[in-house]
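Morning. Coffee machine broken again, so started the prediction first thing and wrote up yesterday's gels while waiting. Chain of 110 residues, entered below exactly as on the submission form.
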Amino acid sequence: MQSLESLKAKKESIRCCYKISETDVDCLFTLLDLKEPKSSSELAEVMKLSKTTVENSMKKLMELGLVRRIKIEEKKIGRPKFVYSLVEDFFPRIRADLKDCAEKILSATS
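Came back before lunch.
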């Protein structure tokens, strides 16, 4: 299994491979650091960003299949509450995607 520190050393490669912003990668790593599902409000507070900025990043990460959104079942009236977590196969997925990305770059240069 790939360590979190090893993954953080590949931050720029992850950003390039998935064509995402530095904020998106920071949101991903924050979710990794916290080791449990968090709402966009909780992530925004930890990261000192706006809730909208975090939600936009989470949307991109969900589209890429790296993060999933989970509805919290509450008996309250009003809007449902959601939390975000990493997908179950996160580390193997990142490893495979980075390898595929590197192969594409190498084939383009030969």
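The chain is about 60% helix and 10% strand. Going to sketch it on the whiteboard this afternoon.
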